[in-house]
Amino acid sequence: MEIQWPLLLFSLLAGCGGALFACVGVSEIMKIGDKTRVPASVVALVLIVVGGFASVLHLAHPANIMAAASNIFSLSGISVELIMIGVNIIVIALYLLFASRGGSAAKALGVIGIVTGLLLGFATGNGYVMQAQPLWNTFALPLAYLGSDIAMGVALFASMLLIFKDEEGFAAFKTVFIGGTLAGLVLFLVYGALVGFAVDIMTYWVGAVLIGGVVACACAYLATKNHTLAYASLAGAVVGGVCIRAMMWLIGTGFLSLFTTAAMHGVL
Fold first, then answer.
1. Helices (DSSP H) in the chain: which residue ranges?
2. CA dist., res. 267 & res. 261, Å (int)
3. DSSP letters spanning 186-255
4. Contacts of 227 (CB under 8 A, 6+ apart)
5. What is the pLDDT of residues 202-249, one digit of tens each?
6. Residue in 146, 124, 135, 148 with CA at minimum distance from that of residue 54
7. 74 pLDDT exceeds 90?
8. pTM score of the predicted model
């Protein structure tokens, strides 16, 4: 099956943005990253919005855009993604409003952002779970998406801590950093195992598992001694995120027109 690049970019950017804001929530709980939270929240918001625009590019025709908007509460895969994008934009916007004041409101919104941010990543993968596609009919697929989002999110937040010269915050965040990249590797392997490793070798084993998993984890672990490796971990996580999504399309069977299929069933 042909790779749908607008949808790949949508899930990659929006999922990374959601996971990045989840890291902002974690930093609120850990009481670290005071100088990094607001810039990270802005970056998360930009990633989600740009990802949303990438998704619109796939709709292509105005009629498809209107159909998706008019059926937003149908709880189809597309509508859930749109709802989660809207929810995350609202939560981040409110957080930015209260962040400068500090206090319990900002912390509460940060904690809510952990949930909404991670749900966004899961939702972007869950929309593809369908019985008609043999290698897509498992909830390990959205978990693999979520794993890649977490790996990218923690690596991006760790990199931003370094950019804003928060050495103390980076040291405190290292466990979350390493754990997040490890979660990505584990969830990649879980998905591969559950589909019997009927995968594209280069995109799965080399791109996702080796570069996006093993290399990203190793760089996260070694970044405590050599901080520049945090950026290498981010690069590896992004490669893994692209590859796990590209592989999903490559192993799909037959021709899949998302909008034709949805229209036939009245669940666009």
1. 5-30, 37-59, 62-70, 77-99, 103-126, 140-163, 167-194, 201, 216-222, 229-250, 258-265
2. 9
3. HHHHHHHHHTTT-S-HIIIIIIIIIIIIIIHHHHHHHTTT-TTHHHHHHHHHHHHHHHHHHHHHHT--S-
4. 162, 170
5. 999 999 999 999 999 999 999 989 999 999 999 999 999 999 999 999
6. 124
7. no
8. 0.91
